[in-house]
Amino acid sequence: MELTKVTALMKATALEVAILAGHLVLYPSGIVAERLSPAPTSARTPSGTSPKTSSKTSAEDPDPADTPTPTTITQGSGSRPVILLHGFVDNRSVFVLLRRSLTRNGRDCVESLNYSPLTCDLRAAAELLGRRVDEIRARTGHAEVDVVGHSLGGLIARYYVQRLGGDSRVRTLVMLGTPHAGTTVAPLADAHPLVRQMRPGSEVLRELAGPAPGCRTRFVSFWSDLDQVMVPVETACLDHPDLLVHNVRVSGIGHLALPVHPTVAAGVREALDAGGPVASGTREEGPGSTSVA
Fold first, then answer.
1. Which are the contacts of 45, defined by CB distance < 8 A and separation ≥ 6?
2. Residue 216: which residues within 8 A CB-CB, separation 6 or more?
3. Element (H, E) at 221
4. What's the Cα-to-Cα distance from 278 to each of 192, 195, 282, 283, rounded to whole Å?
5. Sequential pLDDT tens for the chain (293 residues)
């Protein structure tokens, strides 16, 4: 291996260790679900009353009576809401810096979703995401949201968009180090059902590889050439003939740094701000490249 590559890998590894140490300190603060943002005064139902908001803030299933319906959605004011979705055995604390970056740059509604660490099926987490999306749409008056998912979180959000009709509600889905084609890292972890669903050839990945005609969501996938959790690293590139995809290659950092590094945060903001409608049947082929070394 060339000296420059060894040096880059050593720097990335040192950064990963530092980030892990900091995240372990913050982790307890992210266990409890966050308090939901209040609805803006302009978010009203057609009758002129505020839409009903669920009082549940945890990963529990909401009461059916609290589930909003599309008929209550009107156009809200301000920027589209952003939902942040963490990865495997993690929680919302991983997004402390990214969230701050988004709010300081004009996103007035940024919320995180914790799914239970006991979740054994990616599909169940995708359904939970769908309920939160509908709740936020009803509360804010926005017909669409944006989603940013790290690692497994990106795969969960992608399942919601492709398989559960979420493409009518999610304008842009940004994924950070997501195993679109499966990862072979840590084979001993296969005892956990979610890990098995992230393996190449799993039933969930086969579902996602299937046809998705007319999918309206715009996908942006950030992948790092030094990501040691994505094996091989190219698995974090999304390649699907029916999807509107832009892959962004990041150099010089590892898996844990993706939701933390300021250069990636700037790329995420750019991806969300550029999330306008894309002509049907087109694909964004430009590979994109960001160096943080």
1. 51, 72, 74
2. 167, 168
3. strand 218-224
4. 38, 33, 7, 9
5. 587 878 888 989 999 999 999 989 988 988 887 777 666 544 444 333 343 433 333 333 444 334 444 434 445 668 999 999 999 999 999 999 999 999 999 999 999 999 988 899 999 999 999 999 999 999 999 999 999 999 999 999 999 999 999 999 999 999 999 999 999 999 999 999 999 999 999 999 999 999 999 999 999 999 999 999 999 999 999 999 999 999 999 999 999 999 999 999 999 999 999 864 433 333 444 444 555 54
Q: Residue 19 burial (CB < 10 Å; 0-12/13-18/19+)?
A: buried
Q: Which of 57, 54, 51 is nearest to 75 (CA)?
A: 51
Whether omega before 117 lies within 30 degrees of 0, making that bond cis, reads no
φ and ψ of 227, to 5 deg: -80, 110
Task: Report yes or no: 9 and 227 within 8 Å, Cβ to Cβ.
Answer: no
CA pair distance 171, 158, nearest whole angstrom: 12
Question: pTM of the predicted model, to two decimals?
Answer: 0.82
